[in-house]
Amino acid sequence: MAATIIDGKAFAAEVREKVAGHVARLKSDHGITPGLAVVLVGEDPASQVYVRSKGKMTREVGMHSVEHKLPANVAQDAVLELIDTLNNDPEIHGILVQLPLPEHMDEKRVVNAVSPAKDVDGFHISNVGLLGTGQKSMVPCTPLGCLMMLRDHHGDLSGMDAVVIGRSNIVGKPMAQLLLGDSCTVTMAHSRTRDLPDVVRRADIVVAAVGRPEMVPGDWIKEGATVIDVGINRIEVGEKTKLVGDVHFDSTKDHAGAITPVPGGVGPMTIACLLANTVTACCRANDLEEPEGLTA
Ligand SMILES: Nc1nc(=O)c2c([nH]1)NC[C@@H]1CN(c3ccc(C(=O)N[C@@H](CCC(=O)O)C(=O)O)cc3)C=[N+]21
Q1: What would the mean pLDDT of 171-194 be, rounded to a whole number?
Q2: Is residue 46 scored above 80 in pLDDT?
Q3: Is 76 tagged catalytic?
Q4: Residue 88 falls within a domain, yes or no?
Q5: Is 3 helix (H, G, I), strand (E, B) or coil?
Q6: CA–CA separation, 66 vs 249, rounded Å?
Q7: ipTM for the whole complex
Q8: Ligand 1: distance of its center to the CA of 267 in Å?
Q9: Active-site choice (18, 118, 119, 121)
Q10: pLDDT, averaged across the chain
Q11: What is the CATH number for 197?
């Protein structure tokens, strides 16, 4: 059976439209404009592209958008100072520090300097702990976007067998927590997992988040399973480059139940969830009821 292609691009546009509605309501009813600050250190061209598209979409939904670009050789203390200023700025409800940071910086220290209430990436240890204990938190954007697509496709995920491939702090681990929260039976697989193909073959839901182009072949995927491909890998094909996921799409698309494409799957949802998290943070900061369906 041919898989349903889960259109992350269209879904993300719907999420952004919902966000725009809440932004309009916050402005008209409360005189509040949600604000997002993005901090970019260094000149990595790929990072610059993401930051630009984030800024554009932030403005499109009517939010206040600020970008801080710092040179790669900036002192860590200057970044910490900027974060402190943003933490205390009442017009800013969300702060994102683009990762990775240059080598000379202590990434944990910088990430944990962001006020947990404004931590729209959900990377601060307080938010990690809250998510891990099932308490209200800021939820990392990529796993949140994956969860939204899974809920939309399946409704209830309860009792489903989910395998997450990849154990990163930004995707794999929080993804597993969210799936557990929705009562899946969760297996975390990684580079040392024995018999990875057989582990993946059990899964009703496969989330691939390893960052290795097309490493999951179609014959690892159970007939009818749902495949969420988090990988965004740029590979060379002859003279050109193209984007591929962590899953080999062509060998999977004919027997999976559903699959997210790359591009146009998880990526656009990640940005939409960043905007959703900013609205959520803004509502919480102002003791207003937060929108339904935009958080875990
Ligand atoms: N603190 C932090 N938070 C992040 O969320 C974060 C980060 N740092 N560092 C960099 C990565 C990367 N990232 C992407 C988001 C959307 C697309 C996206 O929308 N991609 C398009 C394709 C874009 C293209 O054509 O290049 C797609 O998949 O359809 C890609 C990559 C967020 N990141």
Answers
A1: 98
A2: no
A3: no
A4: yes
A5: coil
A6: 37
A7: 0.98
A8: 5
A9: 121
A10: 97
A11: 3.40.50.720
155 shares a domain with 96 = no
Note the pLDDT tens digit of each residue in 209-238: 999 999 999 999 999 999 999 999 999 999
Contact of 139 with 122, CB cutoff 8 Å: yes
Residues 150 and 245 reside in one and the same domain: yes
Structure tokens at 156: 């209830």
Residue 45: pLDDT over 80: no
Separation CA 217–CA 221 (nearest Å):
8
pTM over 0.90: yes
Does residue 273 sit within a domain?
Answer: no
CB 111 within 8 A of CB 130: no
Ligand 1 site, residue 41, Cβ cutoff 6 A: no
Residue 82 is part of which domain span?
Answer: 33-118
CATH number at residue 76: 3.40.50.10860
In a domain, residue 80? The reply is yes
Query: For ligand 1, atom 25, which residue shows the shortest CA distance?
Result: 263
Name which of 47-56, 135-144, 273-282 the model is least confident about.
47-56
Query: 24 by DSSP, 3-state: which?
Result: helix
Domain count, the chain: 2
Alpha carbon distance, N-terminus to C-terminus of the chain: 31
Res. 48: pLDDT tops 90: no
